Automatic annotation (TrEMBL):
Domain Cytochrome c: from-to ranges: 23-119
Coiled-coil blocks: none
Record's signal peptide: 1-21
Cited Gene3D superfamilies: Cytochrome c-like domain (1.10.760.10)
Source species, domain of life: Bacteria
SUPFAM superfamilies: Cytochrome c
Record's protein name: C-type cytochrome
Keywords: Heme, Iron, Metal-binding, Signal
InterPro entries reported for this sequence: Cyt_c-like_dom, Cyt_c-like_dom_sf
Record-level Gene Ontology MF annotations: electron transfer activity; heme binding; metal ion binding
Amino acid sequence: MRTIRLLAAAGAAFLASPMQAQDATPNGELTYRVVCAACHTLNPPYEKAPPMTHIARHYRQAFATEAEGVEAIVQWVTKPEVARSKMPAHAIERFGLMPAFPLPEAQLRDVAKYVWSLGAPAPATAAPAAGAATHQHNPPR
């Protein structure tokens, strides 16, 4: 638990410093990488906490709009409580509750928007039109 709090404090200090101009990473993703990724992987396998893509999916199922989902994520990160969780009970039983993170409001919202975006459905891919020829390139041996 102490390690998690130290990581949170270090992440908050890092995020409070000015960003480098050449850094093109969106703020929410950067906050995730610096603060959240120590416990939350994006996808399975996972050991310390549920993966962010699963969390995002549960929040998208629980809330109709991004604004509602983002607000709920912000509230959760600032004050995790069992009653507020959108994760299944078995996730809370397995991992317990995370500690609250003392991040500035703007960074909380940025990371919440990033988490919300992780649950977006994959874009549909267009199938070739009926009768359309597909080109396969077979390099010479």
